[in-house]
């Protein structure tokens, strides 16, 4: 699960690179792509981490 979070955070970094390149070239499509990658990756990382936390709590309680 940690690997999935790392991949998603890496993808967010790639989205930030697209955002910066797009701003430098005044490319609206590149900026939009970067924003979407950042948002999607961070939401995905949050969901995966939340599911992992909930699973750990429930498993630890023995339910």
UniProtKB/TrEMBL annotation:
Keyword annotations for this protein, in alphabetical order, are: Membrane, Transmembrane, Transmembrane helix
Q: Which domain of life is it from?
A: Bacteria
Looking at the UniProt entry, the stretches that span the membrane are 39-61
Tell me the protein's name: Integral membrane protein
What is the native source organism of this protein?
Streptomyces akebiae
């Amino acid at each position: 699960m940690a690997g999935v979070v790392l991949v998603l955070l890496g993808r967010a970094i790639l989205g930030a690179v697209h955002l910066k390149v797009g701003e430098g070239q005044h490319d609206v499509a590149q900026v939009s792509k970067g924003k979407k990658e950042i948002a999607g990756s961070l939401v995905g990382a949050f969901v995966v981490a939340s599911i992992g936390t909930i699973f750990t709590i429930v498993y630890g309680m023995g339910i």
